[in-house]
Amino acid sequence: MFTGIFIDDDERDFKYAESMSIAGDPGLSISILRPDIAFVEIADHIRREKPDLLALDFRLDEVLLGDAPNRYKAGPLAQLLRDYATESPADDFPIILVSHEQKVRDFYNPDLTSHDLFDRIYEKEYLGRSGTQKEIMSLITGYKKIIQFIGKDGLLVNLLDLNPEYCHAINEQFIIDISQFRAPHQVSRYVLKNIIDRVGVLLDINSVLAKLGLNHASTDIEQLKEVLRHNKIHYTGAFSEGWERWWAFRLDDFGQSLCGVSLGDLTAEEKVNCLKGKLKLELKPATSRWTNASSAYFAFACASCNMPTELDFSVEAYDPLPFDFIEKKRVCWKCLQTGEYKEKNLKVSQNDRFIANKVENGQISEESEE
């Protein structure tokens, strides 16, 4: 049984510790710790307990008991614990930030050093959901795997369950960086931010469907996933229990072997005809949100609506990338037209701002493209 600590200064929220607890083997047992002792003392207490997980309320200074010295927020406490972990890597553990406040997601930016302390952020109301619980357990087991291999040769190969001959798919600088990290939380954040959370080496299901030219409403999507798993396209490395991902290069190889040509050279209709003929599955081709046609060469999923999108009717999002194996985000013209991309906090790259303005202002429309 894994153990976790939930720190909150509001008794009304102690119920969320129970919702985070997971029965079974290995399972997760969560204990409650109130921040009513001095800052350093509470950090030392956590260090002695050696939990497998720490959940920190975003604000630890809202409910004060008398002269309780708990006038601090989650960031400084997480920083001190991360410093301890650098000295004792084997005792490192995932730290998640929890809050009632939706706005904390807007505030939270994993690219800032002070925010890079947390592996994930969750709204408290969602902590009991099965998807959230899978992610939390995956963080715990992911850390165990990192601790097992950190400081050893082949760290990334072992973490990702990657055949060494395919290491060329990952930027050399990334491999060098990760081999130099001293603490598991440094490795965790690097892998989550650049591999798990980004389309590139790995694909989420929206990107898989886009590259295969498939309509999301296709009847046999789950059966298709089983075919992909059978062909070892499914990612099985660190954090895979919480985040379903697929190897991009293996999907490309699979498509090439199945259809005889690169998937990028086929329209959605042609891809689906090939897949239906070879796999005997009930599948439908995706249609362009702009032209409503299945004759499009879909290459990626729109970063806003997640629908299959073609290069010709999309714009580049502002998306500074640290590594060239990460796919740049793009926004389809339909999301520009409706303005829905703004709800995802996406911004258009300056390179494509001119064409984006025309779409947003109605100077370019579906009718004008006919």
Brief descriptors of the model:
single chain, 370 residues, alpha/beta, Rossmann fold, 4 domains, two-stranded antiparallel ribbon, 39% helix
Describe this structure in words.
The protein is of the alpha/beta class and 370 residues long. The protein folds into 4 domains: 2-145, Response regulator (Rossmann fold, 3-Layer(aba) Sandwich); 150-196, no CATH class; 198-286, no CATH class; 295-370, no CATH class. Helix content is 39%, strand content 12%. It contains 15 helices and 11 strands. The protein has helices at residues 15-20, 39-49, 74-87, 103-107, 130-149, 155-160, 172-180, 184-196, 205-211, 221-230, 248-259, 268-279, 333-338, 353-360, 366-369; strands at 2-7, 28-33, 53-57, 95-99, 120-123, 202-203, 246-247, 298-301, 308-310, 314-316, 330-332. The strands form 4 sheets. The chain has a 5-stranded parallel β-sheet. The chain has a two-stranded antiparallel sheet with strand order 6-7. A two-stranded antiparallel ribbon has the order 8-9. Helix 4 links the parallel strand 4 (95-99) and strand 5 (120-123). The mean pLDDT is 91.
